[in-house]
Automatic annotation (TrEMBL):
<feature type="binding site">
    <location>
        <position position="36"/>
    </location>
    <ligand>
        <name>S-adenosyl-L-methionine</name>
    </ligand>
</feature>
<dbReference type="GO" id="GO:0016743">
    <property type="term" value="F:carboxyl- or carbamoyltransferase activity"/>
</dbReference>
<feature type="binding site">
    <location>
        <begin position="111"/>
        <end position="112"/>
    </location>
    <ligand>
        <name>S-adenosyl-L-methionine</name>
    </ligand>
</feature>
<comment type="function">
    <text>Catalyzes the conversion of S-adenosyl-L-methionine (SAM) to carboxy-S-adenosyl-L-methionine (Cx-SAM).</text>
</comment>
<feature type="domain" description="Methyltransferase">
    <location>
        <begin position="57"/>
        <end position="152"/>
    </location>
</feature>
<keyword id="KW-0489">Methyltransferase</keyword>
<comment type="similarity">
    <text>Belongs to the class I-like SAM-binding methyltransferase superfamily. Cx-SAM synthase family.</text>
</comment>
<keyword id="KW-0808">Transferase</keyword>
<feature type="binding site">
    <location>
        <begin position="61"/>
        <end position="63"/>
    </location>
    <ligand>
        <name>S-adenosyl-L-methionine</name>
    </ligand>
</feature>
<feature type="binding site">
    <location>
        <position position="193"/>
    </location>
    <ligand>
        <name>S-adenosyl-L-methionine</name>
    </ligand>
</feature>
<dbReference type="GO" id="GO:1904047">
    <property type="term" value="F:S-adenosyl-L-methionine binding"/>
</dbReference>
<dbReference type="InterPro" id="IPR005271">
    <property type="entry name" value="CmoA"/>
</dbReference>
<dbReference type="Pfam" id="PF13649">
    <property type="entry name" value="Methyltransf_25"/>
</dbReference>
<keyword id="KW-0949">S-adenosyl-L-methionine</keyword>
<feature type="binding site">
    <location>
        <begin position="85"/>
        <end position="86"/>
    </location>
    <ligand>
        <name>S-adenosyl-L-methionine</name>
    </ligand>
</feature>
<dbReference type="GO" id="GO:0002098">
    <property type="term" value="P:tRNA wobble uridine modification"/>
</dbReference>
<feature type="binding site">
    <location>
        <position position="126"/>
    </location>
    <ligand>
        <name>S-adenosyl-L-methionine</name>
    </ligand>
</feature>
């Protein structure tokens, strides 16, 4: 796994999922998202209890494919796995990983607002919605809802804001302390923060749930949270 040192040098552009990021993404996300592996394990175990024969599982913003490959590797049922990401470098790396593990997962490069993924039974979206512009974010969630079969489940991990401004600042400061413990310098942390400004736009948990329910989801639950990182599950009746 190549180590993430992208922000050691001064930034020259806003954050984007290009070849440089794809090359270090696995290290970046494990060192940047608290309890990332444990959360993936929780999601995989939950899905393994729900998956049935001939289901279709879609991962939106599948990045390097780690989630779907791990799920497909441990799933004994005959199901279809599809990963969709708009970064070609991510898709190419995911395809190489799937081939190396001899895992059958279809990774597609495309915009989730344009690609057809209707007929899905489970849709995943890990740290993806936060990168979709707020003006069209609800459209993306509406498409997710409409693309799910009856009884379908949507699992979404997001970075979130706290409603209380004092608490929000403290949690952010604690998170930056965490990143330093993972080996990132203060300079790297600030560089990335600047690069993500107006690119990653988080909502509160309440705003996410309101958006989900306004699109038709009847039941929304939080299944994991560490500070400002949350995993939510929503169900289509």
């Amino acid at each position: 796994m190549k180590r993430d040192n992208i922000f050691v040098k001064p930034i020259e552009k806003h954050f984007e999922f290009d070849e440089q990021v794809a090359a270090v993404f696995d290290d970046m996300i494990e060192r940047s998202v608290p309890f990332y592996r444990q959360n993936i394990e929780l999601i995989v175990n939950l899905l393994l209890r729900r998956i049935k024969k001939e289901m279709h599982i879609v991962d939106l913003g599948s990045s390097t494919g780690s989630m779907l490959i791990e799920l497909a590797r441990r799933c004994s049922e005959d199901v279809t796995f599809t990963g969709i990401d708009n970064a070609s470098a991510m898709v190419e790396l995911a395809q190489k990983k799937a081939k190396a593990f001899d895992i059958k997962v279809d990774f597609i490069c495309g915009d989730i607002l344009k690609v057809d993924f209707s007929g899905a039974d489970i849709i995943l979206s890990n740290y993806t919605l936060q990168f979709i512009r707020p003006i069209v974010r609800k459209d993306a969630v509406q498409k997710i809802y409409d693309s799910l079969n009856s009884g379908g489940m949507f699992i979404c991990s997001e970075k979130v804001l706290m409603q209380n401004s004092w608490l929000n600042k403290q949690i952010i400061d604690i998170y930056y302390d965490y990143k330093q413990q993972q080996g990132y310098s203060k300079s790297e942390i600030m560089q990335k923060r600047e690069a993500l400004e107006n690119v990653l736009i988080p909502y509160t948990i309440e705003e996410n749930f309101l958006m989900f329910k306004s699109c038709g989801f009847k039941s929304c639950e939080t299944i994991f949270q560490w500070g400002n990182f949350v995993t939510m599950a929503a169900f289509k009746s």
